[in-house]
Backbone:
């Protein structure tokens, strides 16, 4: 467990002298209260806190939240399971006395952390956790990202309408809420739209050999292969699929499709990944021309000398969503903040949110990327 550097705006302490009956009394001022925001990220998404820190820095530069400085207290759960993220959240709430919890980024972790926030009545906004079930814990849990039900439908519609594909295979990491969920939503929507799922393969844990699953898929000759796994899985699956080689009924290479887990520099920097010509959905494009989003990208690149991914953008937005709700509420009362989060309309940050539905899922767009010359490139935006 690693605690990353928090950016804190500190007040200047003043000595105030009061004259009374020729006696000088010294009033020793109290240090200004600092509001603490908790941030939890799981896995290797070590850049996600940078987006959250940017939002905190911005509010402190404007004088703080309701006039008080804000501190981001974050933990990176790099290897441990969801139960550790839940324990981190408990500690942040009870010992650090945070006023809000941002994250986690993984759905399997968020569904465990949500009940902790709900039990304590602490507003929680997940980052890139996309499974619709992450808000089931109750009315204090919100999502800053689109849901997999939307994302799966977007990729299925794109495959059929834009790419003119009629058959698809799916390979899924089993035992994970996100990977199983996004595969199910893609397959369901692809079939509803008239496509045929010709193979549906699963794998467990962290295998290095996908030969058995890919051989079964190759026999079905699919137009597309939808890969629902983590970054390390995607690199190996695509490499081994091309080596078979995986082809459709006409002998053309099967097109690889994916979801937001593909949006990682870890994948694009992996020389073994065979992802050229693939398509995947994401939260945000750094090529945007929207003024607020453009300002976010320019500032991030100036500070960190790298381009923000969708996860960084959504982490920034999750914190900003909370700040705006507090300012509208004019209060730190959790119930009033919760009400204002639910009433969010036309939020414009790195990404945009039109509103929240009754399940605290946001109405927002998705982006589709393609990979050309080894680089992620914006292809199109899909609005809800």
Residues:
């Amino acid at each position: 467990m690693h605690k990353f550097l928090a950016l804190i705006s500190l007040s200047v302490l003043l000595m105030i002298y009061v004259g009374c009956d020729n006696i000088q009394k010294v009033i020793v001022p109290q240090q200004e209260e600092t509001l603490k925001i908790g941030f939890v990220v799981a896995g290797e998404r070590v850049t996600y806190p940078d987006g959250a820190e940017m939002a905190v820095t911005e509010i402190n530069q404007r004088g703080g939240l309701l006039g008080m400085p804000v501190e981001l207290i974050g933990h990176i759960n790099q290897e441990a399971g969801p139960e550790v993220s839940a324990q981190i959240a408990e500690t942040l709430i009870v010992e650090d006395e945070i006023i809000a919890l941002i994250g986690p980024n993984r759905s399997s972790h968020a569904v465990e952390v949500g009940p902790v926030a709900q039990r304590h009545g602490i507003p929680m906004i997940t980052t890139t956790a996309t499974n619709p079930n992450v808000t089931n814990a109750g009315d204090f849990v919100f999502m800053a990202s689109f849901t997999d039900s939307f994302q799966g439908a977007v990729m299925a519609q794109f495959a059929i309408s834009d790419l003119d594909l009629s058959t698809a295979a799916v390979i899924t990491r089993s035992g994970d809420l996100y990977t199983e969920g996004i595969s199910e939503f893609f397959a369901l929507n692809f079939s509803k739209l008239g496509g045929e799922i010709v193979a549906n393969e699963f794998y467990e844990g962290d295998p290095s050999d996908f030969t058995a699953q890919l051989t079964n898929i190759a026999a079905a000759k699919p137009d597309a292969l939808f890969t629902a796994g983590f970054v390390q899985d995607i690199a190996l699956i695509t490499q081994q699929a091309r080596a078979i080689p995986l082809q459709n009924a006409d002998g053309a290479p099967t097109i690889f499709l994916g979801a937001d887990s593909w949006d990682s520099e870890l994948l694009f920097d992996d020389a073994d990944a065979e992802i050229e010509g693939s398509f995947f959905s994401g939260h945000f494009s750094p090529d945007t021309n929207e003024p607020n989003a453009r300002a976010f990208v320019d500032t991030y690149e100036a500070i960190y000398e790298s381009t923000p991914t969708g996860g960084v953008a959504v982490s920034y937005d999750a914190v900003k969503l909370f700040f705006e709700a507090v300012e509208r509420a004019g209060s730190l009362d959790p119930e009033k903040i919760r009400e204002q989060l639910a009433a969010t309309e036309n939020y414009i940050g790195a990404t945009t949110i039109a509103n929240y539905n009754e399940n605290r899922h946001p109405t927002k767009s998705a982006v589709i990327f393609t990979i050309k010359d080894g680089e992620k490139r914006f292809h199109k935006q899909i609005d809800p």
